[in-house]
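INTERNAL AUDIT FORM
Audit reference: QA-55
Scope: verify that the stored structure record matches its stored sequence.
Auditor: D.O.
Record contents follow.
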Amino acid sequence: MPKLPRVSGAAIVRALERLGFEKLRQSGSHVIMRRGVKGCVVPMHDEVKTGTLAGVLRQADVSAEEFISAL
């Protein structure tokens, strides 16, 4: 598994949109995204920690390789 980068919440949203996710709504500083039946919650922070990013990718059922190529 490749090392996950430290990226912003906006960059995560853009990458997930490239992978077919759509932004459903935003509640405060968190964006709820969905693709089919899989969904995830993305924190809109300036820099998201790698552990948090790993959790978001686990929720979304997206591999680290897929995500890095979509960045």
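Auditor finding: record pair retrieved intact. Strands lie at 22-27, 30-35, 38-43.
Action required: none
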